[in-house]
């Protein structure tokens, strides 16, 4: 069969039309499936107003600008951050639910015997480590020990032990002091609290001898001359408190900061994770954001998925022997 020129031209036109329509439809599908195409929820497993909530809100507005969609904060406090984190683990793996992760919910919680309904390393992809923040060991200004060396010596000579308060068993502040106690062979008596307010009240009233808390909480009392800072848990001295040594300076190997990161349910598509990491990295590098985070007491780190996951394994490796030696069990 011989095809006429007109017939061939018709076939070509139909072929071009079909090809053009296919390209057009592929663009429509891509536009429809482009991430994100609706608001994103960021679960904060703490009550509003705390350090975690402050950090999440600082990031969310700039992250929303980069993604082109709003990022809505969903505060779900309770259970030492376990309740909100569990909700994040059970969310659809589509990139529309992020979780503000932290040590108590991801690393140390399981180590101290917390009953978790999720698997911290298996049920999440931990995609971005925002930063770490130190705790500060403080005493009343009239406390006999004037620095950490004297505090260590006094604890060893006190047969009853020096009482001290923290936010609870397994918290970052608790673990930092427990490591200090083990390394320096100190005699300390831990008094757990459900919040910094009651602990600070007891410290100021003399019911306990010392307290582990954030610099932001202790700052006003230090400036008023009511409290004295003995040491910070961070690897380096704080710029706002250059005269306060790190725990490691006095007792080598001591220290340990709290941290915050962003995690998503496991099996979240890698292109979505890549987009989130890119935008989070841009946000954390903004001078204004870095300044605001530092003002809130946090040291920006900005590690992506691989670095974050390596960090988590290092945290587990560090705290497992500390917890086992002391036979620490959650309240």
Structure description:
This protein is of the alpha/beta class and 331 residues long. It folds into two domains: 40-134 and 257-326, D-Maltodextrin-Binding Protein, domain 2, CATH 3.40.190.150; 144-250, Periplasmic binding protein-like II (D-Maltodextrin-Binding Protein, domain 2, 3-Layer(aba) Sandwich). 47% of the residues lie in helices and 19% in strands. It has 13 helices and eleven strands. Strands 2-1-3-10-4-11 form a six-stranded mixed β-sheet, with helices on both faces. Helix 2 crosses helix 11 and helix 7 packs across helix 13. The longest helix has 29 residues, at 5-33. The chain is globular and about 65 Å long. It starts with a helix and ends in a 5-residue tail after the last helix. The model is unreliable at 1-5 and 14-32 (pLDDT under 50).
How many H/I helical runs?
13
- Sequence of strands across the biggest β-sheet: 2-1-3-10-4-11
Mean pLDDT rating: 88
Q: If classified by CATH, what would the architecture of the largest domain be?
A: 3-Layer(aba) Sandwich
Instruction: Give the termini distance in whole angstroms.
Output: 88 Å
Which features characterize this protein?
single chain; alpha/beta; D-Maltodextrin-Binding Protein, domain 2; six-stranded mixed β-sheet; five-stranded mixed β-sheet; disordered N terminus
């Amino acid at each position: 069969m011989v095809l006429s020129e007109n017939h061939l031209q018709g076939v070509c036109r139909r072929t071009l039309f079909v090809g053009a329509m296919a390209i057009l439809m592929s663009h429509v599908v891509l536009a429809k499936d482009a991430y994100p195409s609706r608001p994103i929820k960021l679960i904060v497993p703490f009550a509003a107003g705390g350090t975690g909530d402050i950090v999440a809100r600082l990031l969310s507005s700039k992250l929303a600008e980069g993604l082109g969609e709003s990022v809505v904060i969903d505060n779900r406090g309770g259970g030492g951050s376990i309740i909100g984190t569990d909700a994040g683990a059970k969310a659809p793996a589509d990139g529309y639910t992020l979780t503000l992760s932290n040590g108590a919910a991801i690393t140390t919680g399981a180590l101290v015997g917390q009953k978790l309904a999720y698997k911290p390393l298996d049920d999440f992809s931990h995609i971005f480590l925002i930063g770490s923040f130190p705790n500060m060991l403080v005493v009343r200004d009239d406390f006999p020990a004037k620095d950490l060396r004297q505090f260590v010596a006094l604890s060893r000579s006190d047969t009853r032990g020096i009482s001290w308060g923290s936010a609870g068993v397994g918290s970052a502040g608790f673990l930092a002091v427990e490591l200090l106690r083990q390394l320096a062979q100190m005699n300390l008596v831990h008094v757990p609290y459900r919040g910094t307010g009651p602990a600070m009240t007891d410290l100021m009233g003399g019911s306990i001898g010392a307290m582990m808390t954030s610099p932001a909480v202790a700052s006003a009392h230090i400036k008023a001359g009511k409290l004295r800072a003995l040491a910070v848990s961070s690897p380096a001295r704080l710029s706002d408190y250059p005269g306060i040594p790190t725990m490691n300076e006095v007792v080598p190997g001591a220290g340990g900061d709290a941290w915050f990161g962003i995690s998503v349910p496991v099996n979240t598509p890698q292109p979505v994770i890549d987009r989130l990491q890119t935008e989070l990295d841009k946000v954390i590098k903004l001078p204004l954001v870095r300044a605001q985070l530092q003002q809130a007491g946090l040291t920006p780190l900005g590690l992506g998925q691989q670095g974050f996951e390596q960090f988590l394994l290092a945290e587990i490796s560090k705290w497992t022997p500390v917890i086992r030696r002391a036979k620490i069990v959650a309240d």
